[in-house]
Structure formats: structure tokens, C-alpha cells
Amino acid sequence: MLASTVMACAIDQMNENLYALLASRFPGSGQAPCMILPDGRVWTYADVDRASSRIAHLLVALGLLPGDRVAAQVGKTPEALVLYLATLRAGMVFLPLNPAYQRHEIEYFLKDAEPGLFVCCPQNRTLADALARQAGVRHVLELGGDGRGSLIDAATPFTDEFASVPRSGNDLAAILYTSGTTGRSKGAMLSHRNLAANARVLHAYWQFQPGDVLLHMLPIFHVHGLFIACHCALLNGSAMLFEPKIDAQRALLLLPQATVFMGVPTYYVRLLNEPGFTRETCRNMRLFISGSAPLLKETFDEFKQRTGHTILERYGMTEGGMFTSNPYDGERRGGTVGFPLPGMQVRIVDDAGETVPAETVGHILVKGENVFRGYWRMPEKTQEEFTVDGYFKTGDMGKRDADGYISVIGRSKDLVISGGLNVYPKEVEELIDALPGVAESAVIGLPHPDFGEAVAAVLVRRQDAAGAALTEAGIIAALKNELANFKIPKRVFIVADLPRNTMGKVQKNLLREFCSL
Ligand code: MCA
Ligand code: AMP
Question: Which residues are within 8 A (CB) of 135 and not within 5 positions of it... i.e. 6 or more apart?
């Protein structure tokens, strides 16, 4: 064997680049469908491999180096997924951003992450250029909702082959921002090993099998749609019915062609709202998976009654993907998130850090190969969030029942989860407090029939002319320029004062009792 061939094999074995793992599972026939689009167009696995090669070459040609960040605030298209895969291949770090983010939010992410390239939607180009300039981002390219744009044009001349850049398991693959209780977003750093470990476990635990077809209706700027859903499908060499967003009526048409569906609880509520959603619709389905927010027991029960399928609920976080899951073969217990996944250690502890007995609520701590590497450029925050023996403090409260099933009971962090998207009240409160005429505010989550929880604000006026002029509609309009739409309060209540406890802390539980949407 030639010395160069021996060397190439050795590098391949060492290469923990996630793309190398995914590609090793692509179907032998490159012609197998990877993404099937609403208009019937098909992206084969060979198309994905070729297109991601071209973009990977472009990233290198732009002068980006392994470890450099590639930020993308784009719609859900096959090209957007391919951009993620190209970033992995080129050894760079993918930073997906919700297209709903506004100036205030994008500005922070670009300054904090300092990407070498920002890929934006064509309609946001002017803003993207201005923010990129301020943040020192060297390149801005466009990718539109039709899959076209300067990113694709610039990549087209490059070749269809690209050897994935060797990465160690600890090298970063992605940074995903999650808001924080302080109001400042934190970039969760996920390595190639973190992502590969979770992908492998889920693929096996949920028993992905030949012939599986995933109906993909989630957004791809978050862990759920990008990593959990896509990695399982790609590792399985499966086809995805790749839809731009959840649309319950379309789901009714497509479910008979699918075997697996993943969604946040809102998706299940919307499916059940469709009178035509029946056992027959689900005749070929093997598995429905729910997560990102609590699935109401009523939804779980109604779904079973209507379709005969028992939704499998699982639990996780941006900071590590999935931690627990109901079993595939055993009893899937409604209102619980099942057992620790293989390789995960889950502890439930009291305030002193001692493990609590069964049926006792405590803080959920997790440890495993998939748990993230820390928060980007926040070593102190990272240290605070881990115990000395390496468990990550999730900020969720939970308990184990006598059979070992874990339930998420609440959160110790002040967080609202609306339609599966997280809103940290502090971030919204800071912006409301900065509005003229506002003395103080409290942002809370209130029950919502579609989103599970939705954001509401309660505020106190200043005793001045600006305070007197405040209106609910005016406050909502002012916030819309600053914040993504899902963070905008659905209602704003103006009150005389905020209830406080003896420590001076606002009693949000009282506000939640007295306000409703
Ligand atoms: C949109 N709106 C919302 C939300 N989304 N309001 C509250 N909460 C939301 N999540 C508002 C918009 O501001 C707009 O209001 C109106 O609803 C319609 O907007 P549109 O975009 O058309 O809404 P939609 O298409 O119906 O989307 C709602 C949705 C979507 C389907 C719930 O947000 C969604 O797909 N969520 C899933 C998010 C997700 O993937 N989470 C996973 C995170 P107006 O008209 O007043 O402007 S990963 C994670 O949590 C961990 C790891 C895990 O465990 O999975
Ligand atoms: P994110 O930061 O977007 O990754 O959201 C993670 C949070 O979503 C967790 O800390 C939980 O509070 C919540 N979560 C995820 N899955 C579930 C679930 N099945 N039940 C209850 N809460 C969940």
C-alpha cells in the first residue's frame, strides 16, 4: 500500500468530523431521496453531497479557517440544510439564527460570535450589511426562500468533491444561542462529538429502520429541527418530506407517505384540531415524537384515542440535545419524559445537591457525551452551571416515579416556553423598562390554547405625561421593532403596582393567577 494511502486511511479513522459520520451512512445509491419538497422536486443524497462540497470550497476560498463561525439567518430550504453540512465539512462552526430575530438581537449575536461570514435573506441585506460592518464580519452573502442567492452563485463554480476537514471530537461544530435569566443570550458550544453521540443514541433508541420517511415540519434554526430530526434521518439514509413549516392540513395529506413525525406540543394540538385527522391518516406511521415543551396529558390521551398511536415524549435542551426519552418498546407514559437515554446520567437533587428519593421534586442534573462544551466566551457562567463532578444544571425541576420514569415538573429558571420557543422574561422586561413612561415591568407566561404558554407583560406607569400616554397597543408596536415576534407580549396589563414579597422580589405567581389571555 502506498504511504500516502496509509496516511489517508489513518486520518479518516481519526476524523471525528460529524459530516464524515453522516456521509458514511448515506445510501449506497446516491440517487436515494434525501429531501422531497412541496413542489415535488427531490434532492438526492448525491445532490446533497455535491452541493455541500461546493459550499465548503467557497467557505475556504473566502479565507475562513477551521473554527471560524458561519452565521445563517435564512428560511427553511434544502440549501439552508446544505449550508449547515458544508460548514461541518469545512471544519467551521455553524450558528443558526431564527429569521424572526430583529436588529437588536442580530446585532448582539454578530458582535458576540464574530462570524467570518453572515448569510442573510435577500430582503434583509441592507440591515445585514450595516450590522456586519459594525461587528467586523468580513463577508455577507444571501440565500433566499427560493434557494437562490449570492451564496449559491458564488459556490457554483467549485468542484463537487471535498474531503471533510479532519476534526477532533472536541472541536466545535455549532453554537446555538439560548437566552439567559440575566437577559443576555449565551452561545451554547456543541462539539462534533456532542452532536454525533446524541445522533447515534437517538437513531438506535427510536429504532430508525430501512424505509423510514420523516415528515419534517420543524424550523431548522434550533436543536429540535436541525439536529434531532435531520441527524436521525441522515444517519438512516432516509427521505425527509421537507416542508417549510407546520401546516396541519398539509400534514394530513403527507402523513400517509411518512413513518415518523417530530413536533413540539403545538403541532399535536393543531393536528387534533383538524376534523379529518384520523386513524386512517396515520395508517403508515411508526412513531410520533414530541418535545421542547410539556405535552399536556389531555393531548397525549386524545391523540391515542383518535389515532391509536402513543406519542413518545422526550426531554432535552439546546445545551446537549436529548437527555431522556420514553421507551420505544416499553410503556410510553403520558406526562413523563421517560428514562435517561443510554450513556446519560440524570440526577435529581435537593438544594444541597443531595439526590432526592423517588416521587420527590428536585433539580435535574445531567451528564453525558452529548452535554455541551460550555457557553461561548463565558467561562465563569459555564463554571456556575456545572457541579464539581461535571453535571450540568438544567434549571428544570423534576421527579422520578417508583418505576424510574422522569417528569419535568417546572423550572427554577424564569423562562416562558411559547410554542416550543424560549423567552427569558428579563430580556423583554429590560426593553419595556426602557420605554418612556414605564416605571417597572414583569413579564410572565400565561396558558395559551395553541402555544401552551404565551408571553404577557404587566407594567406600572411613571407618574408623568409619558406614563399617562402609555397604551397596550403602543407598547406592543414599540417592541415589534426590537424583538422576534414570539417574544412580543400577547397582552400588556397596566397596573398600579407589582406585588412583591418581603425580600422585594416581584411575585410572578400572583400575577399569573390574576391575569389571563
Ligand atoms: C409565532 N407566533 C408565536 C410563536 N410563533 N407566538 C408565540 N409563540 C410562538 N412560538 C406568532 C407570530 O408572532 C404571529 O403573531 C403569529 O403567531 C403567526 O406567526 P407564524 O410564524 O405564522 O406562526 P406559526 O407558523 O403558526 O408558528 C407557530 C409555531 C412555531 C408553529 C408554534 O413557532 C414553531 O414551529 N415552533 C417550534 C419551535 C421549535 O422548533 N422549538 C424547538 C427548540 P402576529 O400575527 O401577532 O405577528 S429546540 C428545544 O426546545 C430543545 C432542544 C428540545 O427539547 O427540543
Ligand atoms: P431550549 O433551551 O430551547 O433548548 O429549551 C429547553 C427547555 O425546554 C428545557 O430546559 C425544558 O424546560 C423544556 N423542555 C424540553 N422538552 C421538554 C418536555 N418534553 N417537557 C417539558 N419541558 C421540556
Answer: 107, 110, 111, 114
Which residue do the cell numbers 462529538 mark? 193
Q: Per the CATH hierarchy, to which homologous superfamily does domain 415-514 belong?
A: ANL, C-terminal domain (3.30.300.30)
Task: List, chain by chain if needed, residues with CB within 6 Å of any ligand 1 atom.
Answer: 218-219, 222-225, 245-246, 264, 266, 291-292, 316-318, 418-421, 451, 454, 485-486
Burial (Cβ within 10 Å: 0-12, 13-18, ≥19) of residue 242: buried
**Same fold? 198-412, 415-514:** no
pLDDT, tens digit only, all 517 positions of the chain: 334 334 444 445 579 999 999 999 999 888 999 999 999 999 999 999 999 999 999 999 999 999 999 999 999 999 999 999 999 999 999 999 999 999 989 999 999 999 999 999 999 999 999 999 999 999 999 999 999 999 999 999 999 999 999 999 999 999 999 977 666 789 999 999 999 999 999 999 999 999 999 999 999 999 999 999 999 999 999 999 999 999 999 999 999 999 999 999 999 999 999 999 999 999 999 999 999 999 999 999 999 999 999 999 999 999 999 999 999 999 999 999 999 999 999 999 999 999 999 999 999 999 999 999 999 999 999 999 999 999 999 999 999 999 999 999 988 888 999 999 999 999 999 999 999 999 999 999 999 999 999 999 999 999 999 999 999 999 999 999 889 999 999 999 999 999 998 888 899 999 999 898 8
Residue 439's SS3 state is: strand
Q: In this structure, which residue's CA is closest to atom 21 in ligand 2?
A: 294
The Cβ of residue 284 has, within 10 Å, a number of other Cβ atoms equal to 12
- Cα separation of the two ends of the chain: 71
Domain range summary for the chain, segments of one domain joined by +: 2-32+45-167, 198-412, 415-514
CATH architecture of the domain with range 198-412: 3-Layer(aba) Sandwich (3.40)
Query: Cα of 298 to ligand 1 centre, how many Å?
Result: 21
Kindly report the number of other CB atoms within 10 A of residue 352's CB atom: 5
CATH fold of 2-32+45-167: Rossmann fold (3.40.50)
Q: Is the CB of 394 under 6 A from ligand 2?
A: yes
Q: In testing the pocket of ligand 2, which one of 417, 418, 451 has its CB within 8 Å of the most ligand atoms?
A: 417
